[in-house]
Amino acid sequence: MKRRFQIVAVALAFGFALSGCGNDSGQSSGSESAGTTKSTKSSKEGGMDMQEAAERSDGMLDAVLKEIDPEVQWAHGPTTTGSCDVTRRRTVMTIVSAERRQSFLDQVEKFWRKSDYRIKAKNNDKEFPAVYAQTKAGFGISVSFRGKGQAFFEADSPCVKESKVADSTSKPNGPAYEGVYPLPRPNVHSDHWSTGAS
Q1: What is the Cα–Cα distance from 146 to 185, expressed in whole angstroms?
Q2: Do β-strands 118-123 and 130-134 pair in parallel, antiparallel, or remain unpaired?
Q3: For 140, what's the count of Cα atoms within 13 Å in the CB-facing half-sphere?
Q4: Apex 86 CA angle, 81 and 88, nearest 5
Q5: d(Cα 69, Cα 55) in Å, to the nearest integer?
Q6: CA distance 152 to 167
Q7: Residues 133/139/142/147 CA torsion (nearest 10 deg)
Q8: Is the distance from CB of 118 to CB of 31 less than 8 angstroms?
Q9: C-alpha to C-alpha distance for 190 and 171, rounded to whole angstroms
């Protein structure tokens, strides 16, 4: 009798543990980084595949680039896929001078906060500043300045169902540079963004 009670108790404890895991993984949490076990299960259970994740990333990138005022010219960077995630990239072709970089980042950060993204980290380096954010659905998005003051946007999906990923249908607002990699350094002058650039 004592043995049977122990077996029932263990079975009940195991069942409660499993049901607790199910509840955690069914919730999407913005505080979890992409690729963690919880966000992986949540995204996969939600049914999103890599193509849908790429389209959502495109929407996020389109939205932030439309918010930058005055407008900057951009082109597509390479799309990369992992075993269950996808990254879309946009490269800014407008020259953003060192003295304008912080105001550029301020516009981006303000828009992301307004969109209820969580700002995960900031790099306040004068030459190569960056801002990293995450959505409640577990998508990561960032903007960073690199060589020659070129701004790069990246949007990373959480782990989703594997699928083929088509090229982005978003149209660049300048030359497409199809088949060109790496893309040229920034070469578009802006009276506002390029002020003080050599």
Answers
A1: 10
A2: antiparallel
A3: 21
A4: 105
A5: 24
A6: 18
A7: 150
A8: yes
A9: 20
The reported pTM is: 0.78
Token digits of residue 56:
């959502």
3-state SS, one letter per residue, for the chain: CHHHHHHHHHHHHHHHHHHHHHHHHCCCCCCCCCCCHHHHHHHHHHCCEHHHHHHHHHHHHHHHHHHCCCCCCEEECCCEECCCCEEEEEEECECCCCCCHHHHHHHHHHHHHHCCCEEEEEECCCCCCEEEEECCCCCEEEEEECHHHCEEEEEECCCCECCCCCCCCCCCCCCCCCCCCCCCCCCECCCCCCCCCC
Query: What residue type is assigned to position 194 of the chain?
Result: S
- The single-letter code of the amino acid at 121 is A
Q: Which two structure tokens, joined as six digits, stand for 35?
A: 């690729």
CA 10/CA 158 separation, integer angstroms:
35
65-116, pLDDT tens digit by residue?
Answer: 999 999 999 999 999 999 999 999 999 999 999 999 999 999 999 999 999 9
